[in-house]
Write a structure and sequence with these properties.
By secondary structure, this protein is of the alpha/beta class. It contains 17 helices and 12 strands. An 8-stranded mixed sheet has the order 5-2-1-6-7-8-11-12, sandwiched between helices.
Length: about 350
């Protein structure tokens, strides 16, 4: 198959190496010229870890070229870039293209809204996953370490009825993709905000001090996990109000990594994929600038609309604003941005779960 991967960060470089080593045609696109130039100079991407080998990946900053002869567009940027990516690729889309976001962060709905806004009428399939399929880091441009390829990953499409087609077309590449009922499920099952934000903020002193530490085994202490569990309960209560079946963090760790423990602390500590991932060395990081505006803030706003208290989400957003001396709410994703502000809970579910041809 022919793939275009948009975003040459950790996930994008790992995906490009993996798919190329599986003998698919891959073009890796990013707007960062220096990053792409270094990958070009290396001649591709070297992978180590659960995947070993050198992949001769084409890398470019020319989006028209990247989109000129492709079947599947994989979007591995941060959620904050989704609107920009949707606008940028719209002129190059063709009937039958699959666009999949890893992970969603409300991305499928944002893409559909942008496509409608710009008058994009091609018959494309828009999908999102609940998580990035790789546990990975790029060590330097053109060199990635992949600690795990997740064993079972749920995805959904908008409209939901397109999921069967996307599953069929991608089954040889990612057989672990499993259909779920709607993009509400994939987005609310994205527990990056539940994991990343508490660990980062409650280890702020350690991050800003000299010396490395491992983000999960060292950062997720019992007290930090207490906060994560409260945040988890707020997410699950929102799911109950919407009458959708969300997975617990324990369920997700079992599904992704085959970690079978009875409590979240032990599951994190005993996850082999988490053992060697180092913490960020700065708070100027996507765990704040993606996971709050596209993760915790929508949870807070959904809670307000549904009558679900979200004290942990609100506390962490406020703490991040104090720590960073920034307003993280003004430009954050809102229910109005998603077209959900005026809908009842039942209408939200029907809007995102049904076969709504207005999306196309």
């Amino acid at each position: 198959m022919k793939f275009t991967i948009i975003g040459a960060g950790n996930g994008g470089q790992s995906m490009a190496a993996h798919l190329t080593l599986l003998n698919h045609e891959v073009i890796l696109y990013d707007i960062q010229a220096e990053l792409i130039q270094k990958i070009k100079e290396n001649g591709g991407i070297r992978a180590e870890g659960v995947l070993e080998g050198f992949a001769s990946v084409q890398a470019t900053t020319d989006l028209e070229y990247a989109m000129s002869d492709t079947e599947v567009i994989m979007v591995t940027t941060t959620g904050t870039a989704h609107k920009h990516v949707a606008r940028a690729i719209a002129p190059y889309l063709k009937d039958g293209h699959i666009i999949m976001m890893f992970p969603g962060y409300w991305g499928a709905l944002e893409f559909r809204n942008i496509f409608n806004e710009v008058g994009m009428t091609k018959d494309v399939y828009v999908a999102e996953t609940e998580s990035l399929i790789y546990t990975c880091r790029y060590i330097e441009p053109g060199h990635v370490r992949i600690r795990k390829i997740k064993e079972r990953l749920e995805f959904a499409t908008l409209p939901a009825s397109d999921a069967r087609i996307v599953k069929e077309r991608l089954k040889e590449v990612y057989p672990q993709l499993v259909e779920t009922e709607s993009v509400l499920t994939t987005t609310l099952n994205n527990v990056n905000p539940v994991f990343h934000v508490p660990i980062l903020l409650l280890n702020a002193g350690r991050i800003e001090a000299e010396g490395d530490f491992f983000f999960y085994p060292d950062g997720a202490t019992p007290s930090v996990v207490n906060v994560m569990e409260q945040l988890e309960q707020e997410r699950l209560e929102i799911g109950k109000k919407l009458n959708i079946n969300l997975s617990t963090c324990l369920d997700l760790l079992k599904r992704f990594y085959d970690v079978d423990e009875t409590n979240l602390y032990d599951a994190i500590q005993n996850n082999p994929a988490y053992k060697t991932g180092k913490a960020p060395t700065t708070l100027n990081y996507r765990y704040i600038y993606e996971d709050i505006p596209y993760g915790l803030h929508p949870i807070e706003k959904l809670g307000e609309k549904l009558g679900v208290p979200t004290p942990a989400a609100t506390l962490l957003i406020n703490l991040a604003q104090l720590v960073r001396k920034e307003d993280l709410r003004t430009n954050a994703l809102t229910l109005s941005d998603l077209g959900l502000a005026e809908k009842t809970p039942e209408e939200m579910v029907e809007y995102l779960k049904g076969d709504n041809k207005a999306y196309k």
